[in-house]
Amino acid sequence: MKFCWSTLRTKNLDDSIRFYSDIVGLKVVERFTAGPGMEIAFLASGETKIELICDGSDRDINVGNDISWGFEVESLDKTLGYIREKGINIDGGPFQPNPHIRYFFIQDPNGMRLQIVENIR
Question: pTM for the whole thing?
Answer without folding.
Answer: 0.92
